[in-house]
Amino acid sequence: MKILITGGAGFIGHNLAIYLNNSGFDIIVLDSLERSTDFALKRLNEAGIPLARASIMKLDEIKSLFKGVDAVVHAAAYVDVAESVGKPLVYLEKNVLGTASVAKASLETGVDLLIYLSSAAVYGNPSKLPIGENHPTQPVSPYGLSKLMGEEVVRFFSTYGFKQVVLRLFNVYGPGQNAAYAGVITKFLERVRNSLPPIIYGDGEQTRDFIHVEDVAEAVRLVLKTGCVGETLNIGSGIPTRIKDLAYLVMRVFEVSGEPVYTNDRQGDIKHSYADISKARSLLGFEPRISLEQGLRKILEQQ
Fold first, then answer.
1. Which of 46, 140, 208, 268 could pair covalently with 124 via S-S, beta carbons 3.0-4.6 A apart?
2. 268 assigned to some structural domain
3. pLDDT, tens digit, 9 for 90 and up, residues 213-240
4. In this prediction, what percent of the chain has a pLDDT beyond 70?
């Protein structure tokens, strides 16, 4: 099965490409390289995975890459919540119009399946925990809004041809994250690698659901294997972790002493979030395999 991964030189995309390549799939990566890292490019090259440099915003340029592809995993996106607050129109352009371009290219070239990597940010501040897929979607950041609109774009275009699956990813972490455009774990790691304590925005009582990128890749593999289509699925660990507990865990794993530094809350951040993954368990047989501490130690081993 031939799989095209958009954003395949990004954090999630390149890890996904390597995982699926090792699982026997024929992989091609599409990326503008606008926000890629040398780490990701080196790993793709070592794995022998072909990379096409192009922007998803340019439909005419990317269509030829979609020909003969069985499934597309759309991982390309701008992903920084804080940045999206200051640049909402940029996020809507890249994440919504870019998704429309990918969907139209898929439609016009006969792609069978489009897997859209969405985000838990579509839910906003939850009224009920854990968060199930039927929870109201009320994003509180332009990033969350852009991902929700992207879901609707994919569903709309799919009515004219291809099958679709939406995976709402919770807080993904792992090797190769770009610290400038990544989540709390990577920002904590950047600090402790320089022997500095993590910075916590707010009181640290916020909770998040951290899922290792290899577990995300396994969820995608299971979608491809099971033929589960037309579904929206949460992909997370199903376990809430307080940010202050994460800070101390990172410091312990990386052997940094001291106390975290606390500062003001950030606009657009939600207070609590963790996934109900029972639907993914039921339909895919999905089960997270890498604990948070195991995942942090894997990063330590790869640095």
1. 140
2. no
3. 999 999 999 999 998 999 999 999 999 9
4. 98
Residue 13: φ, ψ to 5°:
-60, -45
Q: Which sequence positions are flagged as catalytic?
A: 143
β-partners of residue 212 are: 173
Give me 286's structure tokens: 């999905």
- Whole-angstrom Cα Rg for the chain: 18
In angstroms, rounded to a whole number, what is the distance separating the alpha carbons of residues 75 and 118?
8
30: pLDDT strictly greater than 80: yes
Range of the domain at 130: 2-172+213-236+277-289
- 247: in domain: no
Please name which of 140, 222, 207 lies closest in space to residue 171, comparing C-alpha atoms: 207
Question: What's the pLDDT at 267?
Answer: 73
pLDDT tens digits for range 133-188 = 999 999 999 999 999 999 999 999 999 999 999 999 999 999 998 776 668 999 99
pLDDT at 266: 80
Tell me, yes or no, whether 196 lies in a domain: no
CATH number for the domain that contains residue 24: 3.40.50.720
Q: How many domains is the chain built from? A: 1
- Cβ atoms of residues 251 and 258 within 8 Å: yes
